[in-house]
Every structure is written in structure tokens, then in C-alpha cells.
Amino acid sequence: MTVALLCTPALVGALPATAADRPAGPAPLRILLSNDDGFDAPGIRAVYDRLTAAGYEVTIVAPLHNNSGAGTKINSVPTVTVQHPEEHVWAVDGTPGDSVLFGLYQVFKDKAPDLVISGTNFGPNYGTLANHSGTVGAAVAALENGVPAIAVSTDFTGGNPQATLNAMRPTADFTAKLVARLKERSKSGRLLPAGVGLNINHPVVGADGTGTAKGIAITTQDGGRIVTPSYSPAGGDTWNVSVAFAPGTPARGSDLEAVQDGRIAISPLSADWDAAPSDTAKATAALAGLHP
Length: 292
Fold this sequence. Notes:
This protein is of the alpha/beta class.
């Protein structure tokens, strides 16, 4: 089934009382599952199967097509095409952010989900990659609307995509364990602190990706350059583009360091880009005396 909906009317009015403001109660958690690889990608299906098996009520609302690298983009268009190919699955012809908004304001319009999970993504979203990640962007869209959110990614070590596909199973298993822990600790309250989400990066362990991670680490986002583009003329107004993926030496305590060490990186994130108080103080000092 395909439906075309007007975006603006769909977003009119306030979001229903968020899950953060109501107790989870004895009913199973209601989870909106999204991603940026597409609604039928292996990663999102692995997480869907695992969370459903764990007893959660899971609904996929994800892009119709691959939207990797879309970041936090939300399209401003008068209509959007949405397919409903199977029960509990909605495929939005838009970005990950568009998908989450359709989920919150249409699919879950009567009662907001307890949690939004985005992923698992094929490939990492650690360090500065997270700044441009559609996987993380979907989580940010949820946080902006008051719903707890988790972004999940499975590393890609290069040369063997099957290892990443295999590693999606332990990634999904860990995601289910994480959700269970959050539910247990929430004591029927909100699953995460207000405005705080989690960016999870799961390593590929073993040559075939089926190994178990060494442990977990609560990390910060590594600030080093990971991707370097290069350009060469191709005639006229056209340029050839190549991209080198070459993470440098990771910062201590960073998500990149943890994944390289075979641990699961858990980086708390927020939906704003406010600088730390010390950095704000430095910027204030640098601008002292400036006048229009």
C-alpha cells in the first residue's frame, strides 16, 4: 500500500505526550525502529527480529531507499510518499529524519513510542563520521521531539563485508540487552535522561565477525579526521572524487579507541551543538570588545 501525505498538516500541533512522561508499566515497550540504509536492510531486520523475540512491540518506520550520509536533513516538501508493505513496517521516501517524524506524528500520533532505535547501520558511525550519519540523524530527530533515542552501528573493517553482516547478530543481541537494562533501571520512568541519547558502535570481532566484544566503554566522540576526499579534473565542470578512510591515532577514552580495541563504544549524545562551558568561556574571551 502506498499513501501520499501532506507534510505540513501532518506536523501541525504538539507531539502526543511523550513516553518519557509516562510510566512504561507492565505492557511491552513500544519501539520505533529506523535507520538510514533502508527499511529492508539486513541491519534493521536483524534488530527487529531480536527485539521482537525479546517481547517488545516494534514498528519499522525507515527510508524507502538508502539514505546513508544524510545526517540530520529533513526535507521541506509539500508531499511525501509512504509505502506500508507489511504489518509493522512503513517505508518513507525521504531521509531518516523524515522517517522518524512520520513515525512520531503519524504512525504513533495517538501515543508516542517509549524509545526510538536507529540501526544497526552497515559500517561505523564513530568519531567525526557521526556528524554526517543518517543513523545518528534519525536519533537526533527523536531527541528533538522529546523521545529517548539510540543510534546503533556495526563496524566495517574493510575487505570482508560478510564479517560485518555476521557481526550484526551480536550487535542486535547487545541492543536487546541494553534496552532490557534501561527498562530495568528506569523503574517505570523515562528510559534515558531528558535530552540525552546514546550512539552505539559495535566492533567486528574475529575474522568472520561472529566473535564476542571484549566489553563496553562509555566514550566520547573522537575529534580526529577519519575521511579525506580528493578531487581531480574530469573535463569541463566535472571533477572525479575519491575518498580515503584512514582513522588516525584515537584519543584516549574515545569511541574510536574502544572499537579498535574490540569493545562496544557507548557515547552519550544530545540534540544540540552547544559547546562545553570551558570552550564557551574561551570563545567569549576571544570576542571581548567586539561591536556591531
